[in-house]
Amino acid sequence: MPTTLTWTDIALRLALTAAAGALFGINRSEKGRSAGLRTTLLVSLAACIAMILANKLTLPAATPLPTGPILNPGDPLRIPLGVLSGMGFIGAGAIIRRENLIIGVTTAATVWFVTIMGLCFGSGQLALGAVAGALGLGVLGGLTWAEDRLPRDRRAVLVLTMSSQGPGESAIRSRIEAGGFQTVPRGVVYDATSRHTVLTLDVNWHSRKIDSTLPAILRELAADPAIVALNWREAEPA
After folding, report:
1. Which of 134, 149, 164 is the last residue of a domain?
2. Per residue in 110-121, pLDDT tens?
3. What's 218's domain CATH number?
4. Mind giving me the DSSP string for 90-148?
């Protein structure tokens, strides 16, 4: 790691970091993520500046020691370690959990990644930083297409409101499971005033994320005159 830096070296490292950080930020902003352009720019530039500072404070072996108190040559390397620890708090703040829904994990990983990338540029490892940036953008951009097409477990909550002449729970579950789904009952509520029964089911199946067409069984259930209301809400797998 070079310890003698010119302002040209510093400007080059900051410029490359800003360009790479901006590309990550644009990717996140286009997808409406919480860590967008400004966040990724600030994080990557902060990591880069911290590494430049560590470079500046690390004494060359041939440099005569000055008189008076000096900084331990190993101490400056604690600066980037502190940056990595601090970025962990920012990443944790980007993760949100609501019941079984967890979002923001990729955003947190992106914040962590651009921190590492900024440290690479800041330490003068420009080729490594450029390769890291290309790989990171490839993962965020290219693998989204593949991820959407991979079969995965999916889950939805189905709430059926049935009249007194409606089918029973076992009959409803048999109809749904005949279409290739699995059902898990959540509960049954009976309204004595309206004589309606409200049945709540967890419905599980396996398909691609891009397969957003409503299952045909929903249209069949909705067409049943004994079913007063139907509510379908897809959720993240538990």
Report:
1. 149
2. 888 888 888 889
3. 3.30.70.260
4. HHHHT-EEETTEEE-HHHHHHHHHHHHHHHHHHTT-HHHHHHHHHHHHHHHHHHHHHHH
* Residue type at position 142: G
What's the pLDDT at 62?
A: 40
Strand ranges (E), the chain: 96-98, 101-103, 151-162, 182-191, 196-208, 227-235
Instruction: Please provide the average confidence, as pLDDT, over all residues in the chain.
Output: 79
- Same domain, yes or no, for 120 and 165? no
Q: Answer yes or no: are the C-beta atoms of 44 and 114 closer than 8 Å.
A: yes
Q: How far apart are CA 180 and CA 178, in angstroms?
A: 6
Question: What is the Cα–Cα distance from 25 to 35, expressed in whole angstroms?
Answer: 7
